[in-house]
Each structure stands twice: as structure tokens, then as C-alpha cells.
Amino acid sequence: MRVRDAIFQLLAERKVGQLFGNPGSTELTLIAGISEHLRYVLCLHEAVAVGAATGYSLVSGRPGVVNLHTLPGLGNAMGAIATARANKAPVVITAGQQDSRHLRHEPLLSGPLAEVAAPLVKWSHQPVRAEDVPMALERAFRVAVTPPTGPTFLSLPMDFLEREAEPVVPADPVRAGGLRPATAAAVVEQLRAARSPALVTGAGVEAAGAWDDTVRLAEALSLAVYAAPLASQFGFPTGHQRFRGPLPFHAGRIRATLEEHDVVLVVGAPVFVRYPYSPEHVVPEGTSLVLITDDPDEAARLEGGTGYVVDLHDAVAELADHAGPAPVSVAPPADHAAPAPVAGSPPGDTTASTAGSPGPQPGAVGIDLASACAALARHRRDDGILVDESISSGGLVRRFLHVSAPRSYARSANGGLGFSLPAAIGAQLARPEAQVLAVVGDGAAMYAPQALWTLAQQHLPVTVVVLNNGGYKILRDFHARTSAHLGSVPGLSVPDLDLVGLAASLGVASSRAERADELDEVLAEAFAASGPHLVDIQLDTTAPNVFT
Ligand SMILES: Cc1ncc(C[n+]2csc(CCOP(=O)(O)OP(=O)(O)O)c2C)c(N)n1
Predict the structure, then answer these.
(1) Ligand 1 — pocket residues by CB below 6 A?
(2) Residue 353 pLDDT exceeds 80
(3) Is-cis flag, bond preceding 119, omega within 30?
(4) Residues in CB range of 546: below 8 A, 6 or more apart
(5) From ligand 1's centre to the CA of 477, what distance in Å?
(6) Does the N-terminal peptide bond of residue 432 adopt cis geometry, omega within 30 degrees of 0?
(7) Longest pairwise C-alpha distance within the chain
(8) What tens digit of pLDDT does each residue of 36-87 get?
């Protein structure tokens, strides 16, 4: 069997239905005559290809697979690979390498691919022999899906693809190892005996398939539930009665929020992602903290408290089993009409600073954010997928738009812009029947607008809502609070962007809302469309600073 056929066979057995990519000459020996079981999803920039595969992984729970064009393509993709790594997305990235027979001459379009990718992936490799390629690819899958999950990289010399190799059979490592029964019982007792117990959930819950057991645990012990600061996935239904909102990410505000709680259980998140610098210790003296994670690195960084590195699926199930049934008085159905609650009110936390929504400002030009979010909440489906890159608008977006099921929310875990439009491609491919909404700032939208073209070409009915405030509001607001004494700052306005025209030029239907009374009509049309639709919502540009 030829190496390329062994690759296609392996991908088919692993039920990989699409290959995201941007090709060049070095990739043609793979993608020419591509297997009919594999949909090639052309993306016009490599960061979009990796971003789409990341979205696919986060929504489907399965590896997304990418093929890049040798060193320049890999170089273009690095920011998106860093995001896949931060999001722990099991993305298998391949790239074509020059013909191995003349690599010693350092020909055009060759380069140290495996070395370049190495720092950002879990495993990076260029096979020495053609017959080693199928097993190397299989290893790339196994490493990617083994917790802590993450991207892997494989360089494929183009001449290897037509040589002979044996096929390999996919086999993921067995996952096992929850908490010891005595430990599970002790943690449950600690929570039960607490005056004010809390649970902090993160993306690890969703990756491990532990969502239902986490809800069961919270209900049984009447826990106050927070999402981890800046969580890329919440790990808990945000409309649930027990959910108090995301924790702030300013260290002092995290601490102030946790002060109320004497026992805090953190599941599937680091303790804690924080920003910007602030000297406080995040865990108050009177609070006992227990971390349960499948990421040894997260446990190693714990300062104070007890960490357990476990299989999260099994461990949370054990905790929930020990906790038993919920008290009868608890858990009336969640009220999905009301905005989700918000924890604390930290400076530097856009989540909370918009908690008291200002409402329309008299005489303001543009639409106030709360009206835009309320309109989105009216028009989107509660069981839809939300890909979130809403930046300074994020606090209100996340208050109004609930996440009701696992793997239906995704956000960049490392703060790199250009996440949402590519991720929406992958999300819609992972869940063709679901309604996918990408909410994105006008600044962020410009980091990967090529994704719009792929949405159109692949007929993916994603609704893209741009919350357009004419520039980099978060940076303007941050500057006003932290560096105004240094003088005015250039480069934070992005005027004269015609996003409606941009979308149209890439084949995506588009419309603009300039007044609140236009929102209902425009959003109804966008959500009903059979293909992608971009809505440019012109926000009130005089909105208050988000850093209170
Ligand atoms: C790849 C990348 N480049 C630059 C930045 C720095 N950055 C952070 S927020 C931001 C502005 C975002 O603007 P926009 O999406 O319009 O959201 P707004 O703050 O206006 O709500 C920029 C440029 C980044 N995070 N990632």
C-alpha cells in the first residue's frame, strides 16, 4: 500500500471527515486524488485552517486535522497553534516537506519544520523513512487525544507519500484512574461540612465528558458554582440556578469573591488565569482549595491547596456518586429568560464591570450594547453554539447568551485574536444541525476575515455578529486606566472598515444595524439564512470604560 493510501485509511478508520488546509507544491502528493471520504476545506490563510480545526475539535471532541504548506505555511499558523495549545485542542497538524532526496541542499520550500513547531505542540516529528509515516501519524493522534489534550505536528517529505508502507490500526490509550474512594468521600465530606462551599469549573470538564456529573455534584451539595477566570469553555450550564457567573480575573477580585467561601473545589481549570499583574494571593487564608485536574502542569503550578491529577471523567463521577441525590427543594428549572449572574465587580474584569448595564444613553450615536445583547438573546437558539470573541463587550454578551450544553461554547484560551471566525467553520462542520453564532469585535474580525470565504464556499450557515465600536475599545479603556500618564496612544482606532462590503466581497450575505429598532429585522434575517450571514452592529462609541 502507498503511504498516502495508508494515511487515508487511517483517517477513515479514525472517522476524520475533513482536512483543513492551504496547499502548495509540497502537499500535492497528499491531496491530489484525495480520498472521497475526506472533504478538503480550503482556508485562505494557514491560521484560519488551524483555527477551523481547533473549533472542530472543541465542538466535536474529536481531533481536527490540518495540512499546511511547508515552512511559510507553518510560520503563518503559529499564532493559531499557540491558541490550540492554550485551548488544549487535539489538533493533528501536518505539513509537506521538500523531497527528502535533496533536503541536504536546503532547497526552496524546505526548512526545519519539526523544530519550528516543537515548542507549541505536544509532539513534533519528521519521520526518517517513508514506511514510518503511518505509525507516526497514528502516534500524532494518540498524543493529541491523551489528556492533557493538545496539538501535535508531523512533517511529511513529499516523496514519502508515494512509497510503500504497511497500514496501521488506530488505538487510543486506555483512560483510567479516578480518585481513590476514600479521597472522593473525604472531598465530599469537606464540601458538605462547609459553611459556604463553592465549585469552580473549567474547560477540562467538557473535554473529559464530565458535564452531567459536575451538575449532579453541584446540585447534590448545593454548591455555589463559578466558571474559572477567562474559561475557554465553562464546564457548567450558565443559566443554571446554581451558576453565579465567571470568576473575575484580577487577582484581588478573585480573592475577594472567594472570601465568602470556606471550601472551594476547582475542576478542570488552572488556579487561576489572571490579568493584569496584581500582587494578591488568589486563595484567601480562611479558604481550603482542592484542585481536580487531568493536567499535571496545572497541578504543579498550584500555590496553596491540594491538587489531584486524575481522569476527570471518573473522578467527578465518583464525587457525584458519593454526594448522592440532590435535596428535594433544590433545582427548579433554570430561568433562561433572565441574564446570567455575574460574580464580583473587579477592576480589569470586563465580565463584571458591565453588570449594571447602562441602558441606552440619551443622544448616543449607535446602539447600546445591552440592547444588542438582548436582541441577540431573543433571536438565537438557547441550544445553539456560541463562538465568542466579543472582547470589551464580553461581560454583557456572556450575561445574556446562555450556554446550556457541553461543547457549545468556545473562546480563545490565550487571548490571541483571530479565533472566532475560523473556529466557527470547524464548529459548524462538527455540528451541521446546530445553530452557530460567532460574536466578534470589529478589531478581532480583521485577524482572520479569510474565514468568511470558506464559510461561503462550504455553505456553512454561521451567523457572524460584529459588535462594531470603531476600534480597539479594550485597549483604549486599558490605556485610560493604566498608561494615560505616558501620553496619548496611536493605533487604537480602526476607522473606515466596511465589514458589510468585505463580507459581500467574500460571498457572505451581510447587513448593518445602526439603530436599535433595526436589530430584530436584521437578526431574524441572519439567523434564518441558509448560508452564512454577517451582521455589523454599530455600537454606541461613547460607552463607559469597561475597567471600572
Ligand atoms: C493576534 C493578536 N494581535 C493583537 C492583539 C492585541 N489586542 C488585544 S484586544 C485588541 C483589540 C480588540 O478590538 P475589538 O475586537 O474591536 O474589540 P473591542 O475591544 O473594541 O471590544 C487587540 C488589538 C491580540 N490579542 N492578538
Answers:
(1) 79, 391-393, 415-418, 441-444, 447, 469, 472-475
(2) no
(3) no
(4) 350, 353, 354, 392, 395, 473, 474, 477
(5) 12
(6) no
(7) 74
(8) 999 999 999 999 999 999 999 999 999 999 999 999 999 999 999 999 999 9
Q: By the 8 A CB rule, do 232 and 389 touch?
A: no
pLDDT tens, position by position, 486-525: 999 999 999 999 999 999 999 999 999 999 999 999 999 9
Q: pTM of the entire structure? A: 0.91
Q: End-to-end alpha-carbon separation of the chain, Å?
A: 64
The answer to whether 389 touches 468, Cβ cutoff 8 Å, is no
User: Does residue 384 or residue 173 have the better pLDDT?
Assistant: 384
Mean pLDDT of 346-373: 61
In angstroms, what is the span from residue 468 Cα to ligand 1's centroid?
A: 12
Q: For 288-303, what is each residue's pLDDT tens digit?
A: 999 999 999 998 889 8
Is 248 within 8 Å of 352 (Cβ atoms)?
A: yes
CB 228 within 8 A of CB 266: yes
* Residue 198 grid coordinates: 463553592
pLDDT at 406 over 80: yes
Could you list the beta-strand ranges (E) of 229-284. Answer: 243-246, 263-267
Q: Which of 50, 440, 475, 538 to mutate to test the pocket of ligand 1 (most atoms within 8 A of CB)?
A: 475
Task: Tell me whether strands 224-227 and 197-201 are parallel, antiparallel or unpaired.
Answer: parallel
Place of cell 463559578: 226
Ramachandran region, residue 493 (left: φ > 0; alpha: ψ -120 to 50; beta: rest)? beta
